Amino acid sequence: MKTDIRNRKDIEKLINAFYDKVKTDKVIGYFFNDVAMVNWESHLPKMYDFWENILFYSANYSGSPMVVHKELHQKSTITQEHFEHWNQLFCQTVDALFVGAKADEIKNRALNISAVMMYKTIT
């Protein structure tokens, strides 16, 4: 039975499952693997912090995700379709693992953040 997202452990479960999909995704995987050449051991804890802060206001994230995405876009064009695909994968992952108010909130926050990033990255 699915539960709502309750704590950092749940955030880690979600983020690990999401990025397991991303790493092998035919649409956006190459951004992470070939363009950004993500070091997953350092990237995943940053994503745990980011999403924990978004959902639980933990104040444990510091970073400049907008700068990173702009730099990535300069190396390899990111399109609206890429952002939409990311959104779809993220929401599908949330729905597969969790249900409840926090699950809905993280999806809504992700869509809003993605919209701002897309606007500021590709325009």
Summary, kept brief:
By secondary structure, the protein is mainly alpha-helical. It has helices spanning 8-24, 29-35, 40-56, 65-75, 80-97, 101-122.
Description:
The chain is mainly α and 123 residues long. It is built from six helices and no strands. Helix 1 crosses helix 5 (80-97), helix 4 (65-75) crosses helix 6 and helix 5 (80-97) packs antiparallel against helix 6. It starts with 7 loop residues before the first helix and ends with a helix. 20% of the residues are buried.
Which features does this protein show?
123 residues; 6 helices; 75% helix; globular
Query: Uncertain regions: pLDDT < 50 for 5+ in a row?
Result: none
Query: What is the N-to-C succession of helices and strands?
Result: HHHHHH
Using only C-alpha atoms, the radius of gyration works out to: 14 Å
Q: Main sheet?
A: none
Q: Structural class of the secondary structure composition?
A: mainly alpha
Please report the number of helical segments.
6
Shape: globular
Oligomer: single chain
Helix content: over 70%
The count of DSSP E runs of length 2 or more, i.e. the number of strands, is: 0
Q: Estimate what percentage of residues fall within beta strands.
A: under 5%
**Terminal-residue CA separation:** 42 Å
The overall pLDDT, averaged over residues, is 94
